[in-house]
């Protein structure tokens, strides 16, 4: 009998480190030490959906599958290049990296324009998985516009930026060096004292101007109207069999909507089960209660102008209708997305072996095998993730959200 290889599920921080390691910016052994886990040869490193990304053989990592990407600028492969490729490009070229902490100001533009007359300039946008994606996407778009406007060689590079320092005290400078970028200017260094002060007081000065120009009641109305939480938001509920692809589409949609400027809360099924619904099982009663809690939290998010995205299996029509009712009662837009991937495809892509265990009777009440799935008759959108790629699926949902 062949032994089943051990698996280690990586959090967002570790996934950033793994991407850097596979791209050549971080030594493989340094990554393994930073994970602070017992990793034996043959261990498979996976993401939260148990997708195998790399295998550790005791000394090096071998990539298994590409990372999941999203249809946003920070995932554009032309910008998010591996370290070995960047090193090779600039090994013999005089260059300076300008690290941006937001859309470049006039001060950064002047610095970049001056540098580009004599050397290549790389506008670096650090990006952390799961945090600040809207800001990073905005910075990417502004950086690309600046690169197109300036005469000379100006490139944009998206660089994974782990949330915690690496083992051994390695930080941002070490990662930049791993990309071959040793001459570096931080955006803050390029700014005058006046610009830095203006940026730190930008929001306060806006509010002050409004209160100076308008009577109190008018100012209150104007500030409320220009605050994203001033109106009810949106609830997007994905439903489908285990392995249908709904969680992957939901995560990509969340990133895309954040890039659009929305405030997004992703109600991940495993996280909800761990915290909000800890102690619940998978009986019909417990599943209904879990979905009621998801619907309640989603409606609260929408009440305050946010977009809530949830991707449980949600097998029962009554529970889905209850979530719709809660969203509508909150004044929110509600979109039900049925990810209608066939059972055969779901079983074929099952990396956790859940379907095999269910068919063997080891998992009771498993949707599609020993528990029913009630196919929606009221879905606002139906997607077959077996024939539709993630980027196209995200655009289909965005189109549905734009309908009145």
Q: In words, what does this structure look like?
A:
- By secondary structure, the chain is an alpha/beta fold.
- Helix 1 (12-23) packs antiparallel against helix 2, helix 11 (246-259) crosses helix 17 and helix 13 (284-303) packs parallel to helix 14.
- The protein folds into 4 domains: 7-63, no CATH class; 73-191, HUPs (Rossmann fold), CATH 3.40.50; 194-226, no CATH class; 234-402, 3-Layer(aba) Sandwich (Rossmann fold).
- The longest helix is centred in the last third of the chain and has 20 residues, at 284-303.
- Residues 165-170 have low confidence and may be disordered.
- The protein has 17 helices and 13 strands.
- 43% of the residues lie in helices and 15% in strands.
- Strand 5 (95-99), helix 4 (106-116) and strand 6 (120-127) form a beta-alpha-beta unit.
- The strands form 3 sheets. It has a 5-stranded parallel β-sheet, with helices on both faces.
The number of distinct structural domains comes to 4
**Coarse structural class:** alpha/beta
Computed Rg:
24 Å
Could you tell me the CATH topology label of the largest domain: Rossmann fold
The low-pLDDT segments are 165-170
Strand proportion: 15-25%
Shape: globular
Please report the number of helical segments: 17
């Amino acid at each position: 009998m062949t032994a089943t290889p051990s698996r280690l599920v990586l959090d967002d921080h570790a996934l950033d480190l793994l991407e850097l390691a596979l791209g050549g910016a971080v030594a493989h052994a340094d990554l393994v030490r930073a994970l602070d886990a017992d990793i034996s040869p043959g261990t498979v490193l996976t993401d939260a959906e148990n997708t195998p990304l790399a295998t550790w053989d005791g000394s090096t990592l071998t990539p298994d599958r590409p990372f999941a990407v999203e249809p946003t600028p920070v995932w554009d492969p032309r910008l998010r290049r591996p370290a070995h490729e960047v090193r090779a490009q600039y090994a013999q070229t005089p260059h300076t990296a300008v690290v941006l902490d937001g859309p470049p100001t006039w001060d950064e533009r002047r610095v970049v324009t001056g540098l580009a007359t004599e050397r290549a300039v790389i506008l670096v946008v650090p990006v952390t998985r799961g945090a600040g994606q809207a800001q990073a996407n905005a910075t990417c778009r502004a950086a690309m516009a600046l690169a197109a406007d300036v005469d000379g060689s100006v490139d944009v590079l998206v660089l994974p930026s782990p949330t915690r320092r690496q083992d051994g005290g390695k930080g941002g400078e070490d990662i930049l060096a791993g990309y071959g970028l040793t001459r570096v200017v931080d955006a803050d260094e390029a700014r005058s004292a006046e610009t830095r002060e203006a940026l730190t007081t930008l929001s306060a000065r806006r509010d002050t101007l409004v209160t100076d120009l308008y009577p109190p009641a008018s100012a209150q109305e104007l500030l409320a109207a220009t605050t994203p939480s001033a109106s009810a938001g949106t609830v997007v509920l994905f439903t489908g069999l285990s392995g249908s692809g709904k969680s992957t589409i939901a995560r990509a949609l969340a990133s895309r909507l954040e890039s659009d400027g929305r405030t997004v809360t992703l109600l991940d099924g495993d996280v909800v089960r761990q915290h909000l619904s800890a102690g619940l099982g998978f009986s019909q009663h417990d599943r209904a209660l879990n979905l009621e809690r998801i619907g309640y939290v989603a409606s609260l998010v929408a009440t305050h102008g946010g977009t809530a995205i949830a991707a449980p299996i949600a097998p029962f029509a009554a529970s889905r209708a209850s979530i719709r009712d809660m969203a509508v009662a909150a004044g929110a837009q509600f979109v039900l997305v049925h990810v209608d991937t066939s059972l055969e495809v779901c079983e074929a892509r099952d990396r956790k072996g859940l379907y095999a265990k269910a068919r063997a009777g080891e998992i009771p009440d498993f949707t599609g095998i020993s528990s029913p799935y009630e196919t929606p008759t009221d879905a606002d959108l139906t997607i077959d993730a077996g024939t539709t790629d993630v980027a196209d699926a995200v655009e289909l949902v965005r189109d549905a959200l734009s309908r009145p």
